[in-house]
Specification:
Elements lengths: L2 E9 L8 E6 L7 H11 L4 E5 L8 E6 L4 E2 L3 H12 L3 E2 L2 E2 L3 E6 L2 E10 L2 E8 L5 E5 L2 H8 L14 E4 L3 E6 L3 H6 L4 H10 L9 E7 L2 E11 L4 E4 L3 H13 L6 E9 L7 E10 L2 E20 L1
Parallel strand pairs: 2-3, 4-8, 13-14, 15-17
Antiparallel strand pairs: 1-2, 1-19, 3-4, 4-5, 6-7, 8-9, 9-10, 10-19, 11-12, 12-13, 14-15, 15-16, 17-18, 18-19
Helix pairs in contact: 3-5
Length: 305
Amino acid sequence: MPTVEFVTVDVFTAERFTGNPLAVITDARGLTTEQMQQIATEFGYSESTFVLPPEDSANSARVRIFTPTMEVPFAGHPNVGTAYVLGQNASIFGKPVGDNLRFEEAAGLVEVDLKREGGMVTATSIRAPRSLETGDTVAADLVAACASIDTAHVRTDPHEPIFASVGLGFVLAELDGLDALGRSRPNLSAFRQAATRHPGNGLGFSVFLYVRDPSRPDHIRARMFAPLDDVPEDPATGSASGALAAYLVANMPEADIRTRLTIEQGVEMGRRSVIELDIIKQQGKVTDVRISGRCVFVMRGSVEY
Protein backbone atom coordinates (compact mmCIF):
# COMPACT_ATOMS: atom_id res chain seq x y z
CA MET A 1 0.00 0.00 0.00
CA PRO A 2 1.40 3.47 -0.91
CA THR A 3 2.52 5.76 1.90
CA VAL A 4 3.40 9.43 2.35
CA GLU A 5 5.74 10.79 4.99
CA PHE A 6 4.62 13.37 7.52
CA VAL A 7 6.17 15.59 10.16
CA THR A 8 4.36 17.41 12.96
CA VAL A 9 5.61 20.60 14.51
CA ASP A 10 4.35 22.95 17.19
CA VAL A 11 4.18 26.45 15.76
CA PHE A 12 4.59 29.86 17.43
CA THR A 13 6.49 28.29 20.31
CA ALA A 14 9.91 26.88 21.16
CA GLU A 15 8.46 24.40 23.67
CA ARG A 16 6.97 21.06 22.65
CA PHE A 17 3.29 20.46 23.39
CA THR A 18 2.50 24.17 23.41
CA GLY A 19 1.77 26.44 20.47
CA ASN A 20 -0.34 25.25 17.54
CA PRO A 21 0.30 21.73 16.18
CA LEU A 22 0.65 21.28 12.43
CA ALA A 23 0.99 18.19 10.24
CA VAL A 24 3.11 18.59 7.10
CA ILE A 25 3.00 16.04 4.28
CA THR A 26 6.39 16.84 2.82
CA ASP A 27 5.78 15.25 -0.60
CA ALA A 28 2.11 15.00 -1.53
CA ARG A 29 2.62 13.85 -5.11
CA GLY A 30 0.18 11.05 -5.87
CA LEU A 31 -2.49 12.22 -3.43
CA THR A 32 -5.87 13.33 -4.69
CA THR A 33 -7.71 16.30 -3.21
CA GLU A 34 -10.10 13.87 -1.53
CA GLN A 35 -7.22 11.95 0.04
CA MET A 36 -5.64 15.17 1.29
CA GLN A 37 -8.91 16.12 2.95
CA GLN A 38 -9.24 12.67 4.51
CA ILE A 39 -5.72 12.85 5.93
CA ALA A 40 -6.31 16.36 7.31
CA THR A 41 -9.53 15.18 8.92
CA GLU A 42 -7.71 12.21 10.43
CA PHE A 43 -5.06 14.44 12.01
CA GLY A 44 -7.79 16.73 13.33
CA TYR A 45 -5.45 19.72 13.69
CA SER A 46 -6.73 23.18 12.83
CA GLU A 47 -4.74 22.79 9.58
CA SER A 48 -2.53 20.31 7.77
CA THR A 49 -0.37 21.12 4.75
CA PHE A 50 0.49 19.19 1.61
CA VAL A 51 3.66 20.12 -0.27
CA LEU A 52 3.86 19.75 -4.04
CA PRO A 53 6.33 20.85 -6.74
CA PRO A 54 5.73 24.45 -7.83
CA GLU A 55 3.94 25.21 -11.08
CA ASP A 56 6.52 27.96 -11.71
CA SER A 57 10.09 26.75 -11.25
CA ALA A 58 11.03 30.21 -9.92
CA ASN A 59 9.10 29.35 -6.74
CA SER A 60 10.00 26.87 -4.00
CA ALA A 61 6.86 24.75 -3.68
CA ARG A 62 3.11 24.64 -4.03
CA VAL A 63 1.41 24.35 -0.64
CA ARG A 64 -2.19 23.27 -0.14
CA ILE A 65 -3.79 23.87 3.26
CA PHE A 66 -6.69 21.85 4.68
CA THR A 67 -8.70 22.23 7.85
CA PRO A 68 -10.62 19.19 9.14
CA THR A 69 -13.50 20.13 6.79
CA MET A 70 -12.20 22.14 3.83
CA GLU A 71 -9.30 23.55 1.85
CA VAL A 72 -8.44 27.19 2.60
CA PRO A 73 -6.53 29.67 0.42
CA PHE A 74 -4.11 30.86 3.10
CA ALA A 75 -3.35 30.50 6.80
CA GLY A 76 -0.56 31.77 9.01
CA HIS A 77 0.61 28.94 11.24
CA PRO A 78 0.64 26.38 8.36
CA ASN A 79 3.00 28.58 6.37
CA VAL A 80 5.28 29.31 9.30
CA GLY A 81 5.44 25.62 10.23
CA THR A 82 5.79 24.30 6.68
CA ALA A 83 8.64 26.71 5.98
CA TYR A 84 10.33 25.59 9.19
CA VAL A 85 10.11 21.93 8.14
CA LEU A 86 11.27 22.49 4.56
CA GLY A 87 14.01 24.87 5.65
CA GLN A 88 15.78 22.05 7.49
CA ASN A 89 16.37 20.25 4.18
CA ALA A 90 19.22 20.78 1.76
CA SER A 91 16.77 20.93 -1.14
CA ILE A 92 13.07 20.99 -2.04
CA PHE A 93 12.18 18.89 -5.08
CA GLY A 94 15.80 19.11 -6.18
CA LYS A 95 16.15 22.88 -5.70
CA PRO A 96 18.66 24.08 -3.06
CA VAL A 97 17.21 25.74 0.04
CA GLY A 98 18.50 29.22 0.89
CA ASP A 99 17.23 31.71 3.42
CA ASN A 100 14.18 32.70 1.38
CA LEU A 101 11.32 30.60 0.05
CA ARG A 102 8.23 31.31 -2.04
CA PHE A 103 5.08 29.22 -1.75
CA GLU A 104 2.36 29.09 -4.37
CA GLU A 105 -1.05 29.11 -2.69
CA ALA A 106 -4.64 29.76 -3.67
CA ALA A 107 -4.47 33.24 -2.12
CA GLY A 108 -1.29 34.11 -4.02
CA LEU A 109 2.46 33.89 -3.51
CA VAL A 110 3.66 33.69 0.08
CA GLU A 111 7.18 34.97 0.67
CA VAL A 112 9.13 33.35 3.52
CA ASP A 113 12.31 34.30 5.37
CA LEU A 114 14.11 31.62 7.37
CA LYS A 115 15.79 32.60 10.62
CA ARG A 116 18.77 30.47 11.64
CA GLU A 117 20.77 30.01 14.81
CA GLY A 118 23.98 28.03 14.52
CA GLY A 119 23.00 27.07 10.99
CA MET A 120 19.67 25.56 12.10
CA VAL A 121 16.30 27.09 11.25
CA THR A 122 14.60 28.12 14.49
CA ALA A 123 11.92 30.51 13.26
CA THR A 124 10.30 31.73 10.09
CA SER A 125 8.67 34.92 8.89
CA ILE A 126 6.01 35.04 6.19
CA ARG A 127 4.56 37.96 4.26
CA ALA A 128 0.76 38.04 4.00
CA PRO A 129 -0.18 37.40 0.36
CA ARG A 130 -2.86 40.08 0.11
CA SER A 131 -3.47 43.64 1.19
CA LEU A 132 -5.94 44.35 3.97
CA GLU A 133 -9.54 43.81 2.93
CA THR A 134 -12.48 44.66 5.17
CA GLY A 135 -16.10 43.60 4.88
CA ASP A 136 -19.32 43.84 6.84
CA THR A 137 -19.53 45.01 10.39
CA VAL A 138 -21.15 42.48 12.72
CA ALA A 139 -23.59 43.29 15.52
CA ALA A 140 -22.05 43.20 18.97
CA ASP A 141 -24.88 41.05 20.30
CA LEU A 142 -24.23 38.45 17.61
CA VAL A 143 -20.54 38.23 18.52
CA ALA A 144 -21.46 38.05 22.20
CA ALA A 145 -23.86 35.19 21.55
CA CYS A 146 -21.16 33.31 19.63
CA ALA A 147 -18.77 33.77 22.57
CA SER A 148 -21.38 33.05 25.28
CA ILE A 149 -20.80 36.40 27.01
CA ASP A 150 -22.85 39.50 27.72
CA THR A 151 -23.05 42.06 24.92
CA ALA A 152 -21.68 44.74 27.25
CA HIS A 153 -18.25 43.06 27.08
CA VAL A 154 -17.96 43.56 23.30
CA ARG A 155 -16.43 46.95 22.60
CA THR A 156 -17.74 49.04 19.73
CA ASP A 157 -15.10 51.73 20.19
CA PRO A 158 -12.66 52.26 18.61
CA HIS A 159 -14.30 49.88 16.13
CA GLU A 160 -17.32 47.65 15.77
CA PRO A 161 -16.75 43.93 15.17
CA ILE A 162 -15.77 43.65 11.50
CA PHE A 163 -14.71 41.15 8.88
CA ALA A 164 -11.07 41.62 7.87
CA SER A 165 -8.57 39.60 5.85
CA VAL A 166 -5.02 39.54 4.52
CA GLY A 167 -5.71 36.23 2.79
CA LEU A 168 -8.36 34.57 4.96
CA GLY A 169 -11.31 36.34 6.58
CA PHE A 170 -12.20 36.60 10.28
CA VAL A 171 -14.50 38.67 12.43
CA LEU A 172 -12.33 40.88 14.62
CA ALA A 173 -13.90 41.87 17.93
CA GLU A 174 -12.33 43.66 20.90
CA LEU A 175 -13.48 42.74 24.41
CA ASP A 176 -13.31 44.93 27.49
CA GLY A 177 -10.93 42.78 29.53
CA LEU A 178 -9.19 39.50 30.18
CA ASP A 179 -12.00 38.28 32.42
CA ALA A 180 -14.50 38.35 29.55
CA LEU A 181 -11.92 36.82 27.22
CA GLY A 182 -11.26 34.01 29.67
CA ARG A 183 -14.95 33.24 30.15
CA SER A 184 -15.72 33.13 26.42
CA ARG A 185 -16.91 29.80 25.03
CA PRO A 186 -18.04 29.05 21.46
CA ASN A 187 -21.81 28.62 21.06
CA LEU A 188 -22.37 26.39 18.03
CA SER A 189 -26.01 27.37 17.59
CA ALA A 190 -25.12 31.07 17.60
CA PHE A 191 -22.32 30.47 15.09
CA ARG A 192 -24.78 28.76 12.75
CA GLN A 193 -27.15 31.72 12.98
CA ALA A 194 -24.25 34.12 12.40
CA ALA A 195 -23.11 32.23 9.31
CA THR A 196 -26.63 32.45 7.92
CA ARG A 197 -26.69 36.22 8.44
CA HIS A 198 -23.13 36.66 7.15
CA PRO A 199 -22.47 33.92 4.56
CA GLY A 200 -19.32 35.71 3.40
CA ASN A 201 -17.15 33.71 1.02
CA GLY A 202 -18.28 30.27 2.07
CA LEU A 203 -15.36 29.71 4.43
CA GLY A 204 -17.52 29.77 7.53
CA PHE A 205 -17.85 32.29 10.34
CA SER A 206 -14.74 32.53 12.51
CA VAL A 207 -14.36 34.98 15.39
CA PHE A 208 -11.07 36.44 16.62
CA LEU A 209 -11.54 37.99 20.06
CA TYR A 210 -8.83 40.20 21.51
CA VAL A 211 -7.93 42.43 24.45
CA ARG A 212 -5.37 45.22 24.42
CA ASP A 213 -3.32 46.06 27.50
CA PRO A 214 -3.56 49.85 28.02
CA SER A 215 -0.11 49.84 29.63
CA ARG A 216 1.36 47.85 26.70
CA PRO A 217 -0.61 48.78 23.57
CA ASP A 218 1.73 46.73 21.40
CA HIS A 219 0.83 43.52 23.30
CA ILE A 220 -2.47 41.75 22.61
CA ARG A 221 -4.16 38.67 24.07
CA ALA A 222 -6.49 36.78 21.76
CA ARG A 223 -8.66 33.72 21.22
CA MET A 224 -10.11 32.33 17.98
CA PHE A 225 -13.28 30.23 17.65
CA ALA A 226 -14.27 28.42 14.45
CA PRO A 227 -16.63 25.60 15.52
CA LEU A 228 -18.30 25.44 12.10
CA ASP A 229 -14.96 24.23 10.77
CA ASP A 230 -14.53 21.62 13.53
CA VAL A 231 -12.07 23.94 15.29
CA PRO A 232 -13.83 24.94 18.54
CA GLU A 233 -10.73 26.95 19.48
CA ASP A 234 -7.41 27.51 17.73
CA PRO A 235 -4.22 27.85 19.81
CA ALA A 236 -2.60 30.30 17.34
CA THR A 237 -4.05 31.94 14.26
CA GLY A 238 -1.44 33.74 12.18
CA SER A 239 -3.82 34.79 9.42
CA ALA A 240 -6.26 36.36 11.91
CA SER A 241 -3.37 38.01 13.75
CA GLY A 242 -2.13 39.46 10.46
CA ALA A 243 -5.59 40.80 9.65
CA LEU A 244 -5.93 42.36 13.10
CA ALA A 245 -2.47 43.93 12.96
CA ALA A 246 -3.14 45.39 9.52
CA TYR A 247 -6.55 46.71 10.59
CA LEU A 248 -5.26 48.36 13.76
CA VAL A 249 -2.33 50.01 12.00
CA ALA A 250 -4.54 51.11 9.10
CA ASN A 251 -6.65 53.02 11.62
CA MET A 252 -3.71 54.72 13.34
CA PRO A 253 -3.51 58.47 12.63
CA GLU A 254 0.03 58.27 11.24
CA ALA A 255 0.25 58.16 7.45
CA ASP A 256 3.67 56.48 7.56
CA ILE A 257 4.70 54.06 10.29
CA ARG A 258 6.68 50.88 10.91
CA THR A 259 5.63 49.03 14.02
CA ARG A 260 5.59 45.64 15.71
CA LEU A 261 2.78 43.96 17.61
CA THR A 262 2.91 40.80 19.71
CA ILE A 263 -0.18 38.60 19.95
CA GLU A 264 -0.37 35.97 22.67
CA GLN A 265 -2.93 33.24 22.06
CA GLY A 266 -3.82 29.76 23.32
CA VAL A 267 -3.23 30.60 26.99
CA GLU A 268 -6.67 29.41 28.08
CA MET A 269 -6.08 26.09 26.26
CA GLY A 270 -2.74 25.43 27.94
CA ARG A 271 -1.00 25.91 24.57
CA ARG A 272 0.50 29.39 24.84
CA SER A 273 1.58 30.78 21.49
CA VAL A 274 3.48 33.97 20.64
CA ILE A 275 2.93 35.57 17.24
CA GLU A 276 5.09 38.52 16.15
CA LEU A 277 3.69 40.96 13.59
CA ASP A 278 5.70 43.57 11.69
CA ILE A 279 3.59 46.10 9.83
CA ILE A 280 4.51 48.86 7.39
CA LYS A 281 2.13 51.68 6.51
CA GLN A 282 3.00 54.16 3.77
CA GLN A 283 0.98 57.13 2.59
CA GLY A 284 -1.98 56.00 4.66
CA LYS A 285 -2.06 52.40 3.38
CA VAL A 286 -0.75 49.23 4.99
CA THR A 287 1.70 47.82 2.45
CA ASP A 288 3.35 44.97 4.30
CA VAL A 289 2.35 42.53 7.05
CA ARG A 290 4.86 39.95 8.23
CA ILE A 291 3.91 37.10 10.56
CA SER A 292 6.77 35.49 12.49
CA GLY A 293 7.25 32.74 15.03
CA ARG A 294 9.41 29.96 16.35
CA CYS A 295 8.72 26.25 15.84
CA VAL A 296 9.77 22.88 17.27
CA PHE A 297 9.59 19.33 15.88
CA VAL A 298 7.32 16.82 17.62
CA MET A 299 6.63 13.69 15.54
CA ARG A 300 7.58 11.94 12.29
CA GLY A 301 5.88 9.04 10.53
CA SER A 302 4.01 7.83 7.47
CA VAL A 303 0.40 7.63 6.34
CA GLU A 304 -0.96 4.77 4.22
CA TYR A 305 -3.47 5.64 1.54
